[in-house]
Amino acid sequence: MPVSEQPPPAEPQSATGRVAPASRRGDRGEPPPSRCRRRPRLPRFTAPPPGARVAIVGVLVVVAAVCYLLLFIRGSFQFAFDRRLTTLGTMVVVAFAHAIATVVFQTVTSNRILTPSIMGFDSLYVMMQTAMVFVFGGSALARTDGLPKLVVQTVLMVLFAVLLYRWLFAGRFANLHLLLLVGVVLGLAFESLSSFLQRLLSPTDYDMLSVRLFGRMSNSDGSYLPLAFAVCLVVGAVVWHRRHRLDTLLLGRDTSVGLGVDHKRELTVLLVLVAVLVAFATALAGPMTFFGFLVATLAYQLTGTHEHRHVLPMAFLLGLFTLVAGQFLMQHVFYAAGFLTVIIEFVGGIVFLVLLLRKGTL
To answer: Per the UniProt record, which residue ranges are transmembrane (predicted)?
Structure first.
């Protein structure tokens, strides 16, 4: 007997006569087909915390220091190692002084563009050296080299800075723009007086003077380093003890006073510490205007935080890595070790102008 064929059930239609979608087909009970498949999520890259970033830069500094001390030694190993060790010690002092002083100064002034070196320290140093050569002759530079001369230069520069900053920050004329204006004007006055005296020098005296007017790392005296390390340790301990107060000062004068910080006292103490660091580094290794600004700017960018417990060591390590790696490359790759500070100042000046143009204000 033949099996009767029955027509398949008709598709359900909507009120408009169209076939209903599969999701509305209650007779079949099948889930709607998925039109797209979800792609597997890739693991997101999370940046390391600020402490880990500081540790990474510290490892790079150790590697650069080992390479600088031990590679490409020709002749007597002991002589070359001692000379390089003295230069490395000078780099540590210069990097620490400029980096810490710039970060603290920017915190006090609540401005990321200002740097203590632009306030007239370098011009004052040049004027003191020029006046010494003008009065006593070029040979006086070599005869007076030693700790007494270093201490006298540092004390004079610290007194100049303390009087200037104390008057403009703590007096009744306290104004950031006034500080910048007075500092730049005094710096130009010192520079103009130095240029006038240099024109009156003999060619021999001028040549002897010009050697002292550029930042130098390899010509430093090792007898200065114990005093330099002692000054850096004392100032560094005081600044580290005040790292939380520095975080509070970032909030502004009114907020910091409301949180119990003696703003006037902290301002005076920090400015004295900044003056000591910059004056000592300038008297030890020569003027470097934009070095501290460059490493402080990089430190804020790399740490990604405003906390001074991360920014301060990052700035110091970046400064030391810049000097050590730069000295190694310039001395053993490009054979132009004397141009390191010139290149650093050139790059720092460009970064300063770029940030100034981007912000549009000081």
So the answer is: 52-73, 85-105, 125-143, 150-170, 176-201, 222-241, 269-299, 311-329, 335-357
